[in-house]
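Please check what follows.
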Amino acid sequence: MADINIQRKKNSPSPWLLILLVLAVVGAAAWFLFRADTPASTEPVASPTAEPAPTRTDSTAGAETGPRPNDAAVADMAPEAAPVTPEVLAAFARTDATQPTYALEGLRLLTAALVDLADRDDLRTAAINEKRDNLTSATARLDEPNASLRPGFVAATGLMQAMQQQAYPGQEAAVADLITRATQLSGRNATALDHQQLQEFFTRAASLMRILSSSATV
């Protein structure tokens, strides 16, 4: 009887093991791919907020330094010049007549006093207004080189005469004397005679202005 050679059948691997291996490989590959595709966090860094510039303060007062006042506004706040009184004229007449500007400054003071006086209610007449305009015209260019002062002296006495005729009839002789002195002035201040005549003129003009500045006698 012949021997029968029986070979054992080899066991094939379990299909579930293969499935688990495949899943493990796929999972590992997917994990590496996910990490490679994820970008690094790049959040923008906020720039620091700029702080407002500090307000400059005055170190002496501790307050905010405001804009400088306009030069014109400051000029407007300046006090007005004080009116020229007869006392001011008299005091000026006693100063040194040899000073080069003695005649010019004296005429300016007399003009300012007469123009202010012409605005008084009882002296606002057509004749006085005309004489006042003559005076302002005659003294409008005193600052020009070599300007003659004589027309200003004559115009000043003409205005004083108009005021005297309006309200001071008793001062006719005093005004006439002053007019004569004005016509005798040379308009310069160079010689000893000029000094004497100018000082006498301003002294008498101050005395007459004291009367004209008082209450009218008419």
About this structure: The two ends are 190 Å apart (CA to CA).
